[in-house]
Amino acid sequence: MLETEVVVSAPPHIRQGLSTERIMWLVVISLIPAVLSGVIFFGWYVLAIIFSSVLSAILTEVIVLKMMKRPLTIKDGSAVVTGLLLALIIPPTVPLRIPMIGAAFAIALGKQIFGGLGYNPFNPALIGRAFLLASWPSLMTKWVWPVNSLAWAGKNADALTGATALGLLREGTTGIPYLQLFLGNISGSLGETSALALLLGALFLVVYKIIDWRIPVSYLGTVMIMALVMGQDPIFHLLTGGLMLGAFFMATDYVTTPVTPKGRLFFGIGCGLLTMLIRRYGGFPEGVCYSILLMNLATPLLDRWTVPKRFGEVKAVG
Amino acid sequence: MRLRTFKKGIHPPGNKERTASLPIEVLPLPQQVVLPLGQHLGAPSEPVVSVGAQVLTGQKIAEAKGMVSVPLHASISGRVVAIEPRPHACGQLTPAIVIENDGNERISSELVSNHNLDELSAEQIKDLIKQAGLVGMGGAAFPTHVKYSPPPGKQIEYVILNGAECEPYLTCDHRLMVERSSDLILGLLAFMKAAKAQKGFIGVEVNKPDAIANLKQAAAGLPIEVLPLQVKYPQGEEKMLIYAATGRVVPVGALPIETGVVVNNVATAAALGEYLRTGLPLVSRIITVTGQGIPNPKNVEVRLGTLIEDVINYCGGFKEPPGRIILGGPMTGPAQYRLDIPVMKGTSGILVQTRAEVEKPDHAPCIRCGRCVDVCPYNLLPNYLGDYAEHDKLGEAEKYGILDCRECGSCTYICPSRRPLIQLIKNAKSKIMASRKKG
User: Residue A12: which of B330, B361, B381 has the nearest Cβ?
Assistant: First the structure.
């Protein structure tokens, strides 16, 4: 007879090793190059912003969960990811209360109010940013150019103050070398400027099979096609604003994007269309944040419209 | 050359190294066997012996009841000591015939050996398949003869033998293909003749090169093709195997016969071959006893009805207090909580996990990562099915194809939130079927 207790559970009895927790920490690792780029171009203060944002995200999660008497889920790492992502998409000049308030809002009203991880309809970091932009429009659009950028900008350096590359495009005065755009030696949110750093992180996520190629590829592809259609420089659009960060790290957020392969393609295309429409005709020079948030809203519909054909499914007659 | 396979699926660690090259050992006859009347899908068999009767090995002790049922045979000689409910792998007590060994191993003299395939008609072979008590030995235990009685107008073109053995840990089919290939080929030829099929296939994953080479040699000159298959789970699932072998897709809700194909396990074919050669019906089978909790993993041939405790003791007992005892492979085998359950026709292995290997049954909310969608071989959306099942939205679940799920477990294996998707789906499916029955 069996003298000890054994576990009786439904099969399968083996699981692959990748847990939600591990996925979140891999995302954090993948953002290290972007953090470094922020420090290199905008200085040490960037770290204070990131720290404030992450700390506020964690604390808010603890407080909200305690208030709701729900088990603490800090260990899953999702609050850290939200805090980190939010910090990367705000200007490097903001006072520290801005990332703190933003992260608290993102966690409390962007995520926990809906039931926590897995239930939030919108990307919490983007919700945080949208809230900050609406509440402190001047602080949230106070841009600086990296000290190093003066070297390549030369006598035009004066003209750079107070705008991003996309802002300059609106004014019709760009002419920033592609290399500088690619390296991220330009003004912008503290972690969004360096395509190089973001692509390194994205490559890491693709290699570890954390993100699917479909959304970033369809997103970036649509932006380039739209730029051509609008008679603008597709490479410039690709390398400026929050596009790289948005396409690889925001539009690939699992919870708020479709699960079906086709749904993901449409999601990326929708983000691309909206981004370019906002960049060209919107009130702000940049539209990545709102495009993704709007497409988040369409996610349940996209899933419904793109249910894959079952294996052996015969086309319905009539 | 690209290996044949199906789309999607998973790559769990095989863990077959410990037993893959161990020759089949024969377990000494047990003191007692417990033979449940319901070892197969369909109606349980009906006893034709009573308590106190002396029975011989191979003697019929229960008759098939209805079309979807098979007879049952004494797996040892001795005395019937009880016909009563006994523990069954399903977790409940079910009626079983208990035989006490007389130690003489007297074999029934009524058995007819050395059938000549050339002299048998298709109908005769079909009858023999049923008389042998054959069921699917890969685990499903569906009565084999039923598959060879296609509805009128349906032709069977191919018989496919499933030698994929895609379940991790199990190597019993592997050893069978290496050591018993002539019985296997004989059984396949008989299946083909019964089905009037033009061609036979044997699908084997390429991680068993010795089996493939051996079968190729045994099948030389015959209308039988050995198909090396990619190592991927669930390669041995019926519809996936048909797709890999023939490119044909079994329509949703239909049986394989719709595509002119019948699939049987290699062990079932070998059992038929052995029956034709020796006259001995299905009274034993090969199982793999393995896992971190087993000191001496083995492939053993055991008489049906042998209690798993006897088998585990033969393999050295438990190395340490076991964490989980699984009948069959880790992907689909049911976990057991007692050791006095018998090896049955569909039992392919005994897997013992240590406590360290057993994860806590914690699970987190779905993060919609889509990994389950990426691996589901039936192209379902397991995350949604799990949600609908959890919240009793049975109509939605049905609309999204929950009944097409074959419960291979790939979604649950891959889920980073450790959601018990298959458990949820199984529950919902049985609720749906129950409400249908009520009408």
Answer: B330
* Alpha-carbon distances of B411 from A253, B108, B232, B375, B378, rounded to whole Å: 20, 48, 14, 7, 11
CB burial class (10 A; 0-12, 13-18, 19+) of residue A44? exposed
B46-83 pLDDT per residue, tens: 999 999 999 999 999 999 998 899 999 999 999 999 99
Between CA B285 and CA B37 the distance in angstroms is 17
Query: Which one of A15, A117, A312 has the shortest CB-CB distance to B239?
Result: A312
Beta carbons of A257 and B324 less than 8 Å apart:
no
Sequence-separated (6 or more) residues with CB below 8 Å from residue B55: B49, B61, B74, B77, B78, B79, B80, B99
Q: Do B377 and A255 touch (CB under 8 A)?
A: no
Residues of A in contact with B250 (CB under 8 A): 312
Chain A from 80 to 119: CB within 8 A of any B CB? 115-119
Distance CA A2, CA B149 (A): 43
pLDDT tens digit string along B219-230?
999 999 999 999
Q: Are B240 and B223 in contact, with CB atoms under 8 Å apart?
A: no
Q: Answer for the pair B85, B96: CB distance below 8 angstroms, yes or no.
A: yes
N- to C-terminal Cα separation, chain B? 51
Return the structure tokens found at A8: 């009786």
Indicate whether A309 pLDDT > 60: yes
Residue B251 DSSP code? P
**Domain range annotation of chain A:** 20-140, 211-306
Written as one string, the DSSP assignment of B173-223 is: HHHHHHH-HHHHHHHHHHHHHHHT-SEEEEEEETT-HHHHHHHHHHTTTSS
| Eight-class DSSP state of B63 | E
pLDDT digits (tens, 9 = 90+) for A74-128: 888 999 999 999 999 999 999 999 999 999 999 999 999 999 999 999 999 999 9
Rounded mean pLDDT, A41-61? 97
Question: How many CB pairs lie under 8 A apart between chains A and B?
Answer: 166
Which chain A residues contact residue B168 at CB under 8 A? 14
Q: Are A108 and A65 in contact (CB under 8 A)?
A: no
pLDDT > 50? residue A41? yes
> What average pLDDT score do residues A41-56 get?
97
- H or E stretch covering A46: helix A45-67
Partner A, chain B 281-310, Cβ-Cβ below 8 Å: 309
Q: Tell which A residues from 176 to 235 touch B, by Cβ distance under 8 Å.
A: 212
Summarised one tens digit per residue, pLDDT across range B78-108 is 999 999 999 999 999 999 999 999 999 999 8
**ipTM score above 0.90:** yes
- Of all residues in chain A, the one with the smallest CA distance to B307 is A1
Look at A39-53, A135-149, A194-208 and tell me which has the smallest mean pLDDT: A135-149
Within an 8 Å CB–CB cutoff, is residue A263 touching chain B?
no
For B334, which of A11, A257, A310 is closest by C-beta distance? A11
Contact between chains at B416 and A23 (C-beta distance less than 8 A) = yes
Q: Residue A158 above 70 pLDDT?
A: no
CA triple A246-A249-A252, angle to 5 deg:
95
Q: Does A22 touch chain B (CB under 8 A)?
A: yes
Judged by CB atoms closer than 8 Å, whether chains meet at A23 and B379 is answered as: no
How far apart CA A230 and CA B306 sit, in angstroms, is: 77
Is A155 near chain B, with CB under 8 Å? no
pLDDT of residue A162: 66
Phi, psi of B162 (to 5 degrees): -95, 105
- Interacting residues of B340 by C-beta distance below 8 A, sequence separation 6+: A1, B34, B86, B87, B307, B308, B309
Sign of the CA dihedral running B357, B358, B364, B370? positive
Give the domains, in start order, of chain B with CATH numbers: 1-24+103-358 (3.40.50.11540), 371-438 (no CATH)
Which of A8, A18, A260 is nearest residue B337 as measured by Cβ atoms? A8
